[in-house]
Amino acid sequence: MKYLFLLSFIISCSFLYSYEVEWAKMYKGPNNKPGLGNDIFFHNNTLYTTGSCGSESSDLWLLGADIDGNVILNQNIGGTGNDVGHSLIVDNDNIYAVGESGNNGYFVKTDLSGSTPMELNIEGLGENGLNHLLKMIDGNLLLSGFDTKNGSKDFFIYKINPDNGKKIWSSTLGNHTKFEKSYSSIVGPNYHIFIVGYTSHSKHALVVKTNYLGVYEADYKHSQFESFNDIIYDDNNKFILLGYSKSFASGSREKLVKAKIVKMDTDGNFLESPSTFTFGNNNINKPKSIIKLSSGNYLLCGLTKVTEDSNAQAWLCEFTPLGDVVWNYAYDENIDDEFNSVIELPDQSLVAVGKTISNDNHSKQLIVKFRKEGINQAPVVSEIPSQTVDEGQQFSTINLDDYVADPDNDDEEIIWSIAGNNTLSIDIIDRVATISYPNTWFGSETITFTATDPKGLFHSGSATFTVNDIDQPISVTSILPNEGGNLTVNEGDSLD
Question: Where is pLDDT greater, at 6 or 331?
């Protein structure tokens, strides 16, 4: 019966959903240039990405596609050097992107058609680059990346007015003696800014905290992470930091890279077990970015490789707040594939962007859209009545359709199985169970009936079947004289 019983039951019952690929497409830049995608943004039913395209020299690349992946914008911006876009934001009027142009940070603003660009080289103390872009509460933009001072790279943040491109303030953050680079940033409670990346000092992941004006307040290192690649705000004044660790396999020099997350409070305290989790079944599992899904779960993207020398696969991994993996996906269509960014759309579908390298060694931007399959609920088996009969009587047949509910499947799609019977025989034909027993048997057995849906989810219910021992009358078939022969009695006499 395709309706839901409201029951209290004790069972290991699970809910399962997953995603299926709706479409996967590869894109080249203008004039058929090879390229890649680094970030993706969704606005007004349009997917926007940024990355780079070109071979000998590359340009910052803006790509726009409708919800079905059809190209509506394909624009390259840049000069004669190597230009790349790492992060973008889109509003009702403009596209904003940041990256690198040669040895400088690069800021680009265009209209939604990719025209009338504003291009700025972002000046720091020296060579610099930009990896992340976010909009602040006052409408201005925060650019983050790295800057160079005294030959050493440091964290770098730069606040800009998006209307006129004027700098509001900038900060170079570090000890100016080590190599430090940031990959992402976020504005947390009380308008503090948190920037994440790594430092070459002991090869630790690094978080730098500033006030809303970019003035340094504190930094926090984590020795169990090689780098932090992304940060998102969770809840209850907690952050989720995504990164990775490096090690070597026991007894060998085979490199191991594991994707990891850790929670951190706003005071910079890392919340360890059970708030640190490791992901990836291969030797190399390198994450790029993370989002929180509308379901409350988290989704990371990146690349995974069986070994360091094998081809890369584009990788998605969804996990619960307790660190339990509920979905893994690997795209492995060409020589090397990777995802660099992923978003969730309002209909709970996913879109991931990255790159794929084909056999001709040409790179293309890869975009894959995933449709969320409906949440598949396990069937629910209601209480199957136990039965008791006297020896010689028969059990009533059981129409199993009367005792299962599945909102996703019809009764004829449910597969039934039984367990627990040693003497009783149970035959199930057309979902009707017939229970029988040997003629001289009495006793009881508890039978477990399990209903399994086409996707493997199941639920069980039990019933006890009892046969009472009943004394049977003695049956006399014949009485003969001790020595054989016949017996003769007169009419009216009795046989003693």
Answer: 331
**Pairing state of beta strands 270-279 and 255-265?**
antiparallel
Banded pLDDT at 329 (limits 50, 70, 90): very high
Side chain identity at residue 446, one-letter code: T
Question: Hey, is 194 helix, strand or coil?
Answer: strand
Domain ranges for the chain:
15-376, 377-468
CATH architecture of 377-468: Sandwich (2.60)
d(CA 259, CA 241): 11
Which of 17, 8, 85 has the alpha carbon at shortest distance from 378?
17
The count of other CB atoms within 10 Å of the CB of residue 76 is: 20
CA 460 centroid distance within chain: 29
Q: Is the pTM of this model over 0.85?
A: no
Residue 378: strand, helix, or coil? coil
pLDDT tens sequence across 162-193: 999 999 999 999 766 678 999 999 999 889 99
Compute the C-alpha angle 41/54/82, nearest 5°. Answer: 85
pLDDT tens figures, 60-75: 999 999 999 999 999 9
The answer, yes or no, to whether residue 260 has pLDDT greater than 80, is: yes
DSSP string, 274-333: EEEEEE-SSSEEEEEEEEE-TTS-EEEEEEEESSTTSPPEEEEEEE-TT--EEEEEEE-S
Of the candidates 55, 103, 101, 54, the residue with the CA atom closest to the CA atom of residue 75? 54
Q: Please tell me the distance from the alpha carbon of residue 230 to that of residue 261, in angstroms, as a whole number.
A: 10
- If DSSP states are collapsed to H, E and C, what string results for 44-98? CCEEEEEEEECCCCCEEEEEEEECCCCEEEEEEECCCCCEEEEEEEECCCEEEEE
Kindly report the average pLDDT of the chain as a whole number. Answer: 89
For 15-376, the fitting CATH number among 3.40.50.620, 2.130.10.10, 3.40.50.2000, 3.65.10.10 is 2.130.10.10
* Burial of 389 (C-beta count, 10 Å sphere; 0-12/13-18/19+): middle
CB 188 within 8 A of CB 233: yes
Quick check: bond before 274 cis, omega within 30? yes
Q: C-alpha 367: how far from its chain's center?
A: 17
What residue type is 178 in one-letter code? K
Q: Is 412 helix (H, G, I), strand (E, B) or coil?
A: helix
Checking if the pLDDT of 10 tops 50, the result is: no
- Cα 255 from Cα 399, distance rounded (Å): 58
Confidence class for position 482, pLDDT limits 50, 70, 90: low
For position 3, what pLDDT does the model report? 31
pLDDT above 60 (res 293): yes
Across the range 202-227, mean pLDDT stands at: 94
Nearest to 186 by CA among 276, 292, 51: 292
